[in-house]
Amino acid sequence: MSGGRDDGIDIGEVDRGERDSVVILGSGPNRIGQGIEFDYCCVHAAETVREQGRDAVMINCNPETVSTDYDTSDRLYFEPLTLDDVLAVCEVERPEGVVVQFGGQTPLKLAAGLAEAGVPILGTNVEAIDLAEDRSRFGALLDTLGYKAPPYATASSPADALDKAQQVGFPLLVRPSYVLGGRAMEIVYSADGLADYLDRVRVGGVDAGTTIYLDRFLEDSIEVDVDALCDGQDVWIAGIMQHVEEAGIHSGDSACALPPHTLGEEMLTQIRAQTEGIAKALGVVGLLNVQFAIHDDVLYVIEANPRASRTVPFVSKAIGLPVAKLACRVLLGARLAALHLPADTSNAHVCVKEVVLPFDRFAGADSLLGPEMRSTGEVMGIAPDFPTAFAKAQAAAGSQLPNHGRAFITVADGDKPAATGVATILHDLGFEIIATRGTARAIRRMGIPVETINKIGEGSPHVVESIERGEVDLVINTPVGTGARADGWEIRSAAIARGIPCITTMAGGMAAARAIAAARRGEPEVLSLQEIHGRTATDGRPGTDHDGLSQTNIGRPAGAAGGVAPL
Hints:
The protein is α/β, with parallel strands linked by helices. Strand 1 (21-25), helix 1 and strand 2 (55-59) form a beta-alpha-beta unit.
């Protein structure tokens, strides 16, 4: 073949070779919500394709990724991830199939167009992808399975959204369809709040056909992430992760623990069963991520994504098995039964993933977390228990918890009972407690000495002045509701400016208090991943090779910035 093409690909430069090829779609430019976690999966997929005797063909346009290194794949097409460009590559390559599971949402959105053009999609088919993405169809599937989901509705216009919001009920989690990293997603507490949201994001003006998703927000619930593999028949649970923060914080911004640190075996059994049921009902072949929420001891399905999630690298390191490589084997036709995977992936350690947030880089930034993703990286801490692992992860993320000093606490009314528990632990550890009037009153009722300090609106001396003078070492501030979520910006900004740990959920506050207590027991043991998984391998659990998949392949960075915490 010779000559060029209008789309810019010079087919005369391509040495196609004789082997079958597999095209792997990368994630494109790094941005919040779509980063190096997906590049990790793409690199592992390329390695597996080559190990299985095919040519690995990578399409990606980001020079900052490992997937675009010259020796990662057999052929690299440095092209935009658009339908026309990918089809042009496929015309030249005539691949066995295209892999869309490992690059996040960007390649997944190309699957339908590729299938319509006659390009084979390896793994989960387009119908199953659409079934998971389409809110109405997926809701009907859950009804058929007998699984609960929060009340929801889809709207085709702002007026329709305002009407249907009354049926779903407040508070609402609202977003346009097909967003990345929770962009333009917010929690609203009233019809006025929803109208303001729709006006600000101009949902109706962005695209006349934009669908608006409305979901009942389950406040004070526990969120759970599950990564699993399915070959169309059998399902293998790689990891169940419990978020440290309550539901409503984007999964990419929430710390999480593996194994779950507070869930009982009965709930875990239910989670496993529903994950397996969803995977089989969708017809997943490859990776599946399911997000659950537990509210008043009832399990709700939030969503299911038939692709790699950003937690795959973390799970791989935690369990000692290369999950992305195993998934790629399944895409290429392997059965899970032939991979001899352990039924139980738990180990004698707890792993905590914590995010790296960029707030200290931007003057006046608000550290309040919500449904829109804001983190730019992640780190990992490993220890025999959750508090020690959480403390390690905090230190690695640049938010070293204090071991003494003064803790400032101001929380919403619904959080005051939990705040007294956190204050009790911190007081017993020798911390001085200061709080605004309402929170101080609740803490004082429990017999804990507390100093009352003014809110900003109550005049000087107030809490921000105290933070700026260096008189505060830890801030716990939890807003709930429309007005409260807007309050506290000055407090959080002042804490960020001085490098003071600022925690905005009660679950995070309790985890921090327990972590400080664990640190008092002395320096934790430092072990490498190789030592940890070598140690567990002696028990016959994860850590040994499975079907030729070497554990040395799981040592790549877990996230975009910060790498992996000292273990």
